[in-house]
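Table S2 (text version). Query chain:
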Amino acid sequence: YDVMVELSRRGASHYLRTGATQEALRLAERGLAEAGEDIELLELASLAAWRADRLEDAAAYASRWETAVATDSPEARSRALRHRARIEFDAGRPLGQLQYLDEARQVAEPLGETEELAWVYSQLAEAHMLVEDMDAAQEWADRSLKLANRVGSEGAKVRALVNKGSAVIDGNLT
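Corresponding structure-token output:
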């Protein structure tokens, strides 16, 4: 049992990194059949389903993932909410995206200046850009950039710069 669950985790992670999303999803689901609320498998299943464009499955796994980490890890909960926000956008529900991101922000801000909060701010910038609110997009990108610099998150910094640049360019074109 334990070996099979661990192999499902490792295999799903490997296949997700290499782009074999269907295989990643199959292994994650096999592991979840044995360990139904395994946090890592729920995350992997949601990511794989999202990449495979199975948005309803991705949302269901993300919801279970968020519930599984809700009391133990606010940072993981924020990450799950950010992922759920992306699913909402891809499903054609940009307002749902903003709602999940606002919830992620409310979860992450009490943790202080963290890399997770920098990622939340960056994703808020992107979400506002996608609904063509360029002023808000630039404000969130600036907040993300400042925080990413303070906490040393190169990934969040790069994403904030891309989001800010896109908002500035798109804002000047309209």
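Notes on Table S2: The CA atoms of residues 34 and 46 lie 17 Å apart. The radius of gyration is 17 Å.
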